[in-house]
Design brief:
Strand content: 5-15%
CATH superfamily: NAD(P)-binding Rossmann-like Domain
Number of domains: 1
Strand order of the largest sheet: 3-2-1-4-5-6-7
Number of strands: 7
CATH class: Alpha Beta
Number of helices: 11
Helix content: 40-55%
Radius of gyration: 17 Å
Structural class: alpha/beta
Largest sheet: 7 strands, parallel
Shape: globular
């Protein structure tokens, strides 16, 4: 969670003012930091998630801090029809979407030797397929606006391959290829498509489940910057890539990991 004072210290990008921004998986972690950061830019922010309680709590908190209340839409993004219907509904309420951030993911661990076909396909349905189908849904809106931005959140794990994450890593690697493909296919519409590869972000979920003191101590030995990576660090990069300041940047991969790579 980022305090209002910290959010207000972010660089202000005038080109983001009034833009409609859609974030998938916006209720917590990196997604919540993205919702906060773009709300502080006076953008019209919408997000989808399956966690109603966390989503409503985030909306209420931002509204209490003086920001325009984000638009939350419940959506299971693994259901492609539901995802594209949610995007259409957001379009009706907030106007054409200028910025799409494909953030939602599930890094659940599975033993590779016993990973089932069902778990594999479900992982792809959450971590990879929505990236394409959300982009497909917003492309006509962005083309009508004269351009837009799509930011896909991948992971540095595509380079390190920790154990028991074969499906997740395959999906995140697929996002990198998809980013290049979409940048090519949508470039004529002035739609920029880039990928962000976060390192091990110290979200509440990671601290609760996997980022133990022992794991963090080992991680720090591998980092140039000996401090925790926060969700806000990812959000700051996303702001720049979404703004007109990055007008000629597309088909690129940006690592934010404290210098592990």
């Amino acid at each position: 969670m980022v305090s209002k004072s910290e959010v207000n210290n972010y660089t202000q990008y005038r080109s983001l003012y009034g833009k409609t921004v859609l974030i998938t998986g916006g209720a917590s972690g990196i997604g919540a930091a993205l919702v906060e950061a773009f709300s502080a830019q006076n953008a019209r922010v919408a997000f989808v998630d399956i966690d109603r309680d966390a989503s409503e709590s985030l909306c209420a908190r931002l509204e209490a801090q003086g920001y325009t209340r984000p638009l939350f839409a419940y959506c299971n993004i693994s259901d492609t029809d539901a995802l594209q219907a949610s995007i259409a509904a957001i379009n009706l309420q907030l106007g054409d979407i200028s910025v799409l951030i494909n953030n939602a993911a599930n890094d659940q661990r599975f033993a590779t030797r016993t990973l089932t076909a069902q778990d594999w396909h479900q992982g792809m349905a959450i971590n990879l397929h929505p990236v394409f189908f959300a982009a497909q849904a917003v492309q006509p809106m962005m083309a009508a606006l004269g351009g837009g931005v799509i930011i896909n959140v991948s992971s540095v794990n595509v380079h390190f391959a920790p154990p028991e994450l074969a499906g997740y890593i395959a999906a995140k690697a697929g996002i990198l290829g998809l980013t290049k493909a979409l940048a090519t296919d949508f470039g004529a519409d002035n739609i920029r498509v880039n990928a962000i590869l976060p390192g091990w972000v110290a979200t509440e979920k990671q601290l609760e489940l996997w980022l133990t003191p022992e794991a963090e101590a080992e991680l720090m030995q591998r980092l140039c910057l000996k401090k925790r990576l926060a969700a806000a660090d990812v959000a700051k990069l996303a702001l720049f890539l979404a703004a007109d300041d990055a007008a000629m940047i597309t088909a690129q991969e940006f690592v934010v990991d404290g210098g592990r790579i």
